[in-house]
Write a structure and sequence with these properties.
With about 150 residues, this protein is mostly helical. The chain is about 60% helix and about 0% strand. It is globular and about 45 Å long.
């Protein structure tokens, strides 16, 4: 994901033939992850992470990482991105489970759920959300869930 973000922000750009000299061919070490994250505001990070989930060209591991990282954030953009991905993955894929785990964590932390989507949940995604809520915030589960 770090290389994807670096390319997005222009940190790594393709060199022109004019720049292609011996000096420009030197290999530089990758940036430190902590430094890279410090350069991106939380709002930008959320947009980029949701963008990775929505990007059909993104690798599977990048999508898994993005889904898991989104648990650290809150807000309509985060929740709608996770919900959209869970639905697109038909509630069953590994990516849907990662998204559901993050969504459950967000709901437990913020103390509110989306009742309409909770009623729609099924399969492994439902198991993930209900499992997280059952441990961290059982009061948020529907009465018939226990």
């Amino acid at each position: 994901m770090r290389t994807w973000l670096a390319r997005l922000f222009g940190k790594e750009r393709l060199r022109t033939t004019d720049e292609d000299s011996l000096e420009s061919r030197a290999v530089t070490p990758p940036e430190d992850a902590a430094v890279s994250r410090a350069e991106i505001s939380p709002e930008e990070r959320v947009v980029l992470l949701v963008g990775i989930l929505d990007d059909p060209a993104a690798r599977e591991d990048e999508k898994y990482d993005a889904a898991m990282d989104l648990e650290d954030f809150s807000g309509p953009l985060v929740e709608s991105g996770l919900i959209r991905t869970i639905r697109a993955e038909d509630f069953t894929s590994v990516l849907a489970q990662h998204c559901a785990e993050s969504l459950g964590g967000i709901w437990a932390r913020t103390g509110h759920v989306d009742p309409a989507f909770m009623a729609e949940l099924r399969g492994p995604a439902k198991d993930e959300v209900f499992g997280i809520l059952g441990i961290r915030a059982p009061h948020l589960l529907p009465p018939d869930a226990l």
